[in-house]
Amino acid sequence: MIPQTCRDSLARMKFLQTSKMEKPLLNDPAQPPTDELLGKILNESYPAYVAMMDEVTSPGCGLEPMWRYYNDGKSWLCKMVFKKKTVFWLSVWDGFYKAGFYFMERHLQGIGELDIDPGISEALSKVKPFGTLYPVTLEMRKKEQIGDLLRLIEYRKKLK
Length: 160
Fold this sequence. Notes:
Layout: H1 4-16, H2 35-42, H3 46-56, E1 64-70, E2 75-82, E3 85-93, E4 96-104, H4 108-112, H5 118-126, E5 133-140, H6 146-158
Antiparallel strand pairs: 1-2, 2-3, 3-4, 4-5
């Protein structure tokens, strides 16, 4: 079994692999994310970000956001943690944010059984694994997308 620190590092690297045109923002190690900065970058998606953070950090969901600058990806990422378990990674882009989950192959069938947007399951069926992990990335722009995110969070929290 791969140690948690190695799995987190592999997940971060995969999460940040993008085309040359795309790159997450928040690239200044001296400028930690603030509400004001996030509001400027996310623009119209900022209300969806605030609603999502309120929901996932509420006692009912219980996630803890852990912002940190990662030199390997040259940007700030937010690791969303439940107890000691990484549930998903959050990155900030121009006008939206991404929530990245990583699942083992044995967990994929359960994702297909969730009441989520069929496009997520369809994209998952086409994704290539990164080692033993299968990425599921949600591009979040609207409050209406939070329901799918919450269902994936609850599913991820229950996995061993």
